[in-house]
Write a structure and sequence with these properties.
The protein is of the alpha+beta class. It is 46% helix and 15% strand. It is built from 7 helices and 6 strands. Strand 1 and strand 2 form a beta hairpin.
């Protein structure tokens, strides 16, 4: 099963001691002793001086600064969906996704909310005064109102549809969502 961003972060933190010889608190102490405040500078220091990987350095620096890029879905929804209208649409589409089955997992990212079964099959993000529903579909399904995905933040998502109001929901979107769910 593919890990979402939050689970990847947790895994990196959990494995720091085995992979680097130091746990998170030891790495944070090193940064504090060095006195580097700038995240990019601190990451560069950890990567060059200690040969840490990019994501190890990034997570250590963010944890040292009290930054959690992967909060719970409610916090992210409030952050991503800026207006009452887009928040309402997000919850409307989310409900449609969760009704697909009890095995749907929501794993928030910085700019979108992805949904997984075995693999990621959909995501929701804000676009102007509506939301984009991104879908992982077979190539032959990208037509008739389902556009090719453009810059949604996930390589797995190949189709998208703009939803500007609840009235935009239609049988084609529902069918495409079900295909994405069943194929992943």
């Amino acid at each position: 099963m593919a890990l979402g961003p939050k689970q990847m972060q947790e895994s990196i933190i959990r494995n720091l001691k085995d992979k680097t010889g130091k746990d998170l608190s030891e790495w944070i102490s090193i940064l504090e002793a060095k006195g580097i405040q700038d995240k990019k500078e601190a990451m560069a220091h950890l990567k060059s001086e200690y040969k840490l990987g990019h994501f190890q350095a990034k997570i250590i620096c963010e944890q040292a600064q009290g930054i959690d890029q992967y909060k719970d879905a409610v916090s992210f929804a409030d952050q991503i969906f800026h207006t009452q209208g887009t928040k309402s649409l997000f919850h409307f589409v989310k409900e449609k996704i969760l009704l697909l089955g009890g095995d749907v997992r929501e794993q928030p990212c910085q700019t979108y909310i992805p949904y997984y079964r075995k693999n990621q099959f959909s995501l929701i993000t804000q676009k102007k005064e509506g939301v984009i529903l991104g879908l992982n579909l077979p190539d032959n399904f990208i037509a008739n109102g389902i556009e090719p995905a453009k810059n949604l933040g996930s390589e797995r998502i190949n189709g998208q549809v703009f939803i500007g109001s609840k009235e935009d929901w239609n049988p084609l979107i529902a069918a495409a969502l079900e295909v994405a769910y069943k194929n992943n």
